[in-house]
Amino acid sequence: MCSPIVVSMGSTDVEVRRSHRRRRTVSAYRDNGRTIVLIPARFTKAEEQQWVATMVAKLAKGDKRRRPSDTELRARAAELSQRYLGGMAKPSSIRWVTNQNSRWGSCTPAEGTIRISARLKGMPGYVLDYVILHELAHLLAPGHGRQFWSLLTSYPRTERARGYLEGVASAAGLDLTDADQDEEALAPGQAALDVAAVD
Ligand SMILES: [Zn+2]
Asked: How far is CA 176 from CA 69, 142, 145, 172, 187, in A?
């Protein structure tokens, strides 16, 4: 690997690393606010510039996807409802909240309102999608019974997302059980997705 070259693209510092082991793959990731782009050593300067621009745009798009605003959250919920729940779940509101420490999401089916923990921002898109879908499904099935889970079977990454959330909760040292222990404290008709992403 040659010495890295750092270029500035707008407000982003980009470090280009050329690798002799790479033949045709280009990859990029963030490291401490810097963007690292890995390219094959044989790339010309023009190819390098082209691929750096492509990868920076790709990462920016991913950032935006992972940190959607309330407006984007609404659009995403509508899309997920359409795709996985036949459009049946129609929340009256869905928004980010920062005051939920023990739940990834919560839902008041009687009012059709959904709140999503801002702690999910920055997590992979499929995890956020799962939490949105979980709360959407509560608009159709309040508890965590068979009917509820059957609504989520069409989403292929349910198990993977639940595993991810369990891992995050465990790494954060959160005290978990595998039951919705907080549900007693909720107002009647409220449902919550506990950090344990429970059954
Ligand atoms: Zn739930």
From this structure: 29, 21, 20, 11, 21
